[in-house]
Amino acid sequence: MAYEALYTRVRPKNLAQLIGQEHITTALTRAISNSRLSHAYLLVGTRGTGKTSTARILAKAMNCEKVLQAQKEGRPLNATEIPCGKCPSCLGINSSPDNVEFDAASNRSVEDVSRLLSTANLAPLQSRVKTFIIDEVHMLSFEAVNSILKLIEEPPPHVAFFLATTEFNKVPQTIRSRCQILNFHLIPNEMIASYLQKLSKSLNVELTKEAARKFARLAAGSMRDAVTYFDQCYAMADKVISLEDVEKTLGLVSDADLDEIISAVKDENRTALSAALSRVFRSGLSAVSIAEALIGRLRDVEYNHLKRHIDSELAMLENFSEEIRKVIGEMQYSGIPDIILEMALMKIAAPKISMLTENTSSANTKRTESLDDIKKIFYELRGKLPDNEKNLRAMLSEAAVLKFSNDVVTIGFTSQSLSNMFNDDRRERFEEYISRKINRKIKIEKVVSQKGEGYADYQDIDEREKRNIQTAMDLFQIN
Ligand SMILES: [Zn+2]
Fold it and tell me: Which positions ≥6 away from 396 have C-beta within 8 Å?
């Protein structure tokens, strides 16, 4: 048997199982108890909040033998009884010709819709009421909307419509005004988390509180997304699903790493920041996803501060996420998003008095790098130079680090002309890049040397950097 997604299996089967939409459960339970269901509903809300499930519940309830019986007797119904889920009508609805469900995103044209609604004017074959469920109704073409309007305006007595949409603003006013509107809310994180914990228990897996909260935060109010994320981890889980499992399985930046970055920025500790960033970059995540995760984490920290009435850091945190938000756009269209993120973070982490001019006595700045460290930093920075530094990148691709002592880096160029092009202005800029990276002011000295010593380092550069250098060389017509 084909694998059935967990979300399909755990969809709410009656109004009581609908999560986070109490206002809808209450209103519909009352309407059904009083036999006052409308013939057309417009279900509005973000994806995964329960619109389609509710439409299916209502379609069943309209024909459920137990519901009809209670209505006849005037007995008020409980949300768990709507629908009963056991009578022949409830059990047979999926194969019933009287229940039509389709997605307007893939059936937009008037021909599609006319075909799907062709039986609306005929009496139902098996049920009391014919039900039509249309998902993403805002996607319908203008003509298709008109053909539905006629049916909603003068509905045959035996027909009910359930129209669902994620984009209320795109639904024509003519449809809105003829339907009862049900507004689905985003489901609060705590509700999603506690639902997932119950669900995992029923599947004999323990889901830790932190992991459940993580799913809820990622899902941002959508139960479908939350269950889908959970399902991915559940498929690989043993007995327990921990926060770490979630981060690993879904390929997320861990909260611990994010916290380390945030602390380093707050402490203006650029050495620690650089170390934390390198580790996160090495895990292979995209810089944009790291930046987005960082914004999410900052929001959590801000929220916690607000809750505990800690005002001191709020402005700093706000500014922090604002700066990251600003560079995300830039990162998406750049070939070097990681260097943009790193530079932005370094800027936020910059001490208010410049580290570069004032040598502080902090332990972090006292460290001395070896020649190998400097080589690594040099090649790394060279490979990551932004696009507006193409020329610098190209000429440095022909340079090798030869010596490092007393905070002076000696680099060798293969020709006098290249050495000349590496003028004071460019030298100072690259000095600045290295100085920022190691948190200390350094100088660069240039010499002309034979291609030999030092150049073997080029072999150690990773493929990506080689590509960058090649592109730069092509652009600069160096070979
Ligand atoms: Zn039933």
Answer: 382, 385, 411, 422, 430
